[in-house]
Write a structure and sequence with these properties.
The complex is a heterodimer of chains A (290) and B (130). By secondary structure, chain A is of the alpha/beta class. Chain A has twelve helices and ten strands. In chain A, helix 4 runs parallel beside helix 6 and helix 10 packs across helix 12. The longest helix of chain A is centred in the N-terminal third of the chain and has 24 residues. Classes of the chains: A alpha/beta (290), B alpha/beta (130).
């Protein structure tokens, strides 16, 4: 579960050095190696009507990316980190997967999807597409669009939203590995409103008590590992409540297990994970169940 | 006898350029596309000299250089760094790694910044090979 090697996927307008810099705290845990990936979309350099393949454009885009990567790499090399870079022409997700096969990273860092609602409906977001096809945690950054400042300590105040799934349990193991970076951890569970529909107050309170007990047991596990932890039960729509908790407890990052819904359900109904990763203002660490 | 030179670089244009220069000057070029393949070729081919890029996929030139210079059977092989990474950053990184690992490595024979002229490269190779 250790994050020794991370793959930083950037288009430069979505993720820049300040995002990378906020991750460098991971060197205090186990980070040793950073790999950059820039994917130049095929459409930018090839198959233009009447022009064919534009080699000069490819050279220009590759060198522009190379100059940025050299600049970033110099800083990381000086910190004693191992650094690698890939600049590929192709389609984003297949190129990410190809690079994963070559480099075997422990964490993927990407910016939020730039697709619109209609494109999401027909082609899914990059984040969803990626999570469906890999079994490595994905960290989604999105600060550039909100013009907000990247938290200097990305992992200082994480919020773990658990639904007690296998992937949520995996997230617990990841958090234990970065315990040295955490000032305070908040953990939460969102209970569906339907569960609270009952004629007796007693049965409703019982559900709350059960959820609270499970959260407190989880708190104990974290506390035993030296992580100061607080637990919270929320009721309602999970997407809204998780974002609300993030704001209330000033989360620096939201950590979620990623769903394993079938593609057709995911495409038409959407998933909580995707919705939070794509729409919330918080960086999100998505942990797969595999 | 012609000398074997291993070129470790991920950029195909740079590899083609160096290969042409080497062949025109009667060297036997061998290529590797990244740091991992570079180490394999060094161990298997035992080149007389290595030109080494720094920022590459699968293992950087910084780590490969350290491996070379700390391996008793390989440390005699001259290395010419050929890269866009500044010498200052290279030296600082080696200093940091030396502190971590408690083992110092010598400076490379030559440190050339890309792009390099053919004469400059051949001159560095000839001087390194003594």
């Amino acid at each position: 579960m250790k994050i020794k090697k991370l793959l930083f996927v950037t288009k430069f307008d979505d993720l820049c050095y300040n995002s990378l810099n906020s991750l460098l705290n991971l060197t205090k845990a186990s980070l040793e190696h950073v790999v950059f990936l820039n994917v130049i979309e095929k459409e930018k350099v090839a198959m233009h009507r009447g022009a064919g393949y534009i080699k000069e454009e490819e050279v220009k885009l590759k060198e522009t990316a190379n100059i940025r990567f050299i600049d970033w790499a110099e800083n990381l090399f000086e910190l004693g980190l191992e650094v690698g870079a890939h600049i590929n022409v192709g389609t984003l997700i297949p190129e990410i997967i190809k690079t994963i096969e070559l480099e075997a990273p422990d964490l993927i860092v990407i910016g939020r999807s730039h697709k619109g609602r209609l494109e999401h409906l027909y082609s899914r977001s990059d984040v969803t597409e990626l999570i469906r096809r890999i079994s490595i945690p994905v960290l989604v950054f999105k600060h550039m669009n909100e013009d907000s400042i990247v938290p200097e300590k990305l992992f200082s105040r994480p919020l773990l939203a658990t639904n007690w799934s296998k992937s949520s349990n995996q997230a617990v193991e990841y958090i234990k590995d970065i315990k040295g970076l955490i000032d305070e951890l908040n953990i939460m569970h969102v209970t569906d409103e339907k569960n609270l529909k009952s004629k007796s107050t007693h049965s409703v309170q019982k559900i709350r008590k059960q959820e609270r007990k499970k959260l407190d047991d989880l708190c104990d596990i974290f506390e035993e590992n030296g992580i100061k932890t607080r637990s919270h039960v929320y009721v309602g729509d999970p997407e809204k409540e998780i974002i609300k908790a993030g704001k209330e407890y000033q989360a620096s990052i939201i950590i979620l297990g990623s769903s394993s819904k079938t593609s057709i359900i995911e495409r038409w109904m959407g998933s909580i994970t995707r919705a939070i990763a794509d729409n919330s203002i918080f960086p999100c660490l998505l942990i797969p169940s595999k | 006898m012609n000398k074997k030179v291993l070129v470790v670089d991920d950029d195909p244009d740079v590899r083609t350029f160096i290969l042409t220069v080497l062949e025109e000057n009667n060297f036997i070029p061998i290529v590797a596309h990244d740091g991992v393949e570079g180490l394999e070729k060094i161990e298997n081919e035992k080149p007389d000299l290595v030109t080494l890029d720094v920022l590459m996929p699968r293992g950087s030139g910084i780590r490969l250089y350290r491996k070379l210079k700390t391996d008793p059977s390989l440390k005699h092989i001259p290395v010419i760094m050929l890269t866009g990474i500044a010498l200052k950053s290279f030296m600082r990184s080696q200093k940091t790694l030396s502190e971590f690992q408690g083992e110092k490595v010598p400076a490379p024979d030559f440190y050339l910044e890309k792009p390099v002229e053919p004469d400059e490269l051949i001159d560095a190779i000839n001087k390194s090979l003594g």
